[in-house]
């Protein structure tokens, strides 16, 4: 996501904010200097996506809150390593959040457990569940529209890995496709999403 | 770009690579600008899915976070950033921190045993110190072990949990430390076992909270294993180990 000042159009993803979004990139750079007020402003920009993403992955409300707090404190602690020229602040934060939440979900639940929670070994079922609880609630029309340009297997591969924390091998098992296929579809799907969203 | 590696950008961008495959890809990333650029772009695309999942957190979270950051030291900007995705290395370096703290608590230098240890932050250091202090009088035993001429250090990781054991066959002792070990389910405990060809011998129940454990170890032990057992522990393991640490490198 381009949250830099140089963006010509309002950044994507700031639903309900037609006015230019506050500049997360500049705030994060300020945070790196130890500016607590900047952190408080940045907090408002990032906490909902972070919490929402962590919640998708962990499901458990208390755990999600705990991991969200860890992630936000890590943003503060490691902001000094953020390189604005390498990408947007939101991407940086969400990359961190995703990694932490995936760490946690893998540490606490085996793939089999996660699958059992979904209540079915069927990939289609797992996907329905994901798309209902997540995609169905996407407010960003653009993301929804772009996801719909993916093939079904591309979409499944992206959703199972990103929102559910499966490895691509686990995802392959879930959808009953060869791992090499899912690996490729995952990349193709993300590339298609990137091109459709016009990011990167 | 080239080869099979380029096909892994997508999986890597969404943390769907694990183990050796990820390590290998990161190695490649370090020297392939093209793949690095693609990973950045795909992360940005995936990040939009994160943004799209936005949800209102509990209101009291903000106060807690602001309070915590006010007491958290930032990493120095000059420090080498931890490469994205090297979870294991990072976790291991935290263990290194804890070992360093253990050593300082019991008054020995650790460099000879572990090489250079670096801590991530003052907060982590404090936490590590606290945990080592919880280990109390076992500190002295740890020190003896660290001093043993045949002391060896081994790591294993499973999911997000990392285990480190300092072993001396000569003393017949082991210090076992975990990091991010998931809490045992209710009415269950984690139990540590010394495993050899004859079977498993209990080395005790882990108290949780990643507190280091010092235990006697039968001489012919080849592996350490951690299982989940009913509260109070078992005579013999009733489940398969979810973490195994081989003592034979
Ligand atoms: Zn490459």
TrEMBL record, chain A:
Domain RNA polymerase sigma-70 region positions: 42-109
Signal sequence range: none
InterPro entries given in the database record: RNA_pol_sigma-70-like (IPR039425), RNA_pol_sigma-70_dom (IPR014284), RNA_pol_sigma70_r2 (IPR007627), RNA_pol_sigma70_r4_t2 (IPR013249), RNA_pol_sigma_r2 (IPR013325), RNA_pol_sigma_r3/r4-like (IPR013324), WH-like_DNA-bd_sf (IPR036388)
UniProt domain RNA polymerase sigma factor 70 region 4 type: residue ranges: 141-193
Coiled coil residues, start to end: none
Source domain of life: Bacteria
Record keywords: Sigma factor, Transcription, Transcription regulation
UniProt similarity note: Belongs to the sigma-70 factor family. ECF subfamily.
Protein name from the UniProt record: ECF RNA polymerase sigma factor SigK
Gene (UniProt): sigK
From TrEMBL, chain B:
Superkingdom, taxonomy of origin: Bacteria
Main location: membrane
Sections of the chain in a coiled coil: 118-145
Transmembrane segments: 95-119
Compartment(s): Cell membrane; Membrane
The UniProt record lists the keyword Metal-binding: no
InterPro entries with a match to the protein in the record: Anti-sigma-K/W_factor (IPR051474), Anti_sigma_zinc_sf (IPR041916), RskA_C (IPR018764), Znf_put (IPR027383)
Protein name, as recorded: Regulator of SigK
Annotated PANTHER family: ANTI-SIGMA-K FACTOR RSKA (PTHR37461:SF1)
Domain Putative zinc-finger: 10-36
Keyword annotations of the record: Cell membrane, Coiled coil, Membrane, Transcription, Transcription regulation, Transmembrane, Transmembrane helix
Membrane topology value: Single-pass membrane protein
Domain Anti-sigma K factor RskA C-terminal: 100-241
């Amino acid at each position: 996501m381009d949250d830099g000042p140089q963006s010509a159009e309002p950044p994507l993803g700031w639903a309900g904010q037609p006015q230019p979004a506050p500049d997360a990139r500049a705030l994060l750079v300020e945070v790196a200097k130890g500016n607590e007020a900047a952190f408080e402003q940045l907090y408002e920009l990032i906490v909902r996506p972070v919490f929402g993403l962590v919640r998708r992955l962990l499901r458990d409300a208390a755990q999600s809150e705990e991991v969200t707090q860890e992630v936000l404190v890590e943003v503060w602690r490691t902001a000094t390593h953020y390189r604005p020229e390498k990408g947007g602040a939101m991407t940086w934060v969400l990359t961190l959040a995703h990694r932490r939440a995936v760490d946690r979900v893998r540490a606490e639940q085996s793939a089999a457990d996660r699958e059992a929670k979904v209540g079915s070994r069927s990939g289609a079922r797992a996907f329905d569940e994901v798309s209902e609880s997540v995609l169905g609630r996407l407010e960003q029309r653009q993301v929804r529209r772009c996801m719909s340009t993916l093939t079904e297997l591309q979409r499944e591969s992206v959703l199972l890995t990103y929102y559910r924390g499966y490895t691509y091998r686990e995802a392959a098992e879930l959808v009953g496709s060869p791992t090499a296929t899912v690996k490729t579809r995952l990349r193709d799907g993300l590339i298609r999403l990137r091109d459709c969203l016009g990011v990167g | 770009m080239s080869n099979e590696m380029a096909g892994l950008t997508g999986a890597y961008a969404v943390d769907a690579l694990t183990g050796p495959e990820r390590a290998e890809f990161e190695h490649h990333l370090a020297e392939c600008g093209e793949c690095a650029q693609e990973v950045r772009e795909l992360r940005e695309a995936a990040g939009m899915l994160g943004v799209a999942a936005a949800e209102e957190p509990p209101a009291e979270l903000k106060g807690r976070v602001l309070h915590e950051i006010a007491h958290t030291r930032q990493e120095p900007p000059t420090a080498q950033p931890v490469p994205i995705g090297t979870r294991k290395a990072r976790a291991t370096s935290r263990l290194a921190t804890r070992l360093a703290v253990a050593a300082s608590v019991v008054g020995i230098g650790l460099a000879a045993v572990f090489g250079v240890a670096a801590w991530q932050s003052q907060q982590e250091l404090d936490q590590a110190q606290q945990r080592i202090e919880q280990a109390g009088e076992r500190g002295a035993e740890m020190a003896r072990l660290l001093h043993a001429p045949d002391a060896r250090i081994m790591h294993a990781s499973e999911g997000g949990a990392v285990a480190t054991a300092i072993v001396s066959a000569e003393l017949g002792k082991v210090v076992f430390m975990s990091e991010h070990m998931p809490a045992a389910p209710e009415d269950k405990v984690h139990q540590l076992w010394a495993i050899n060809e004859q079977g498993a011998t209990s080395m005790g129940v882990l108290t949780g909270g990643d507190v280091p454990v010092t235990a006697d170890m039968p001489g012919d032990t080849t592996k350490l294993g951690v299982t989940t057992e009913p509260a109070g522990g078992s005579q013999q393991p009733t489940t398969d180990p979810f973490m195994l640490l081989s003592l034979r490198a």
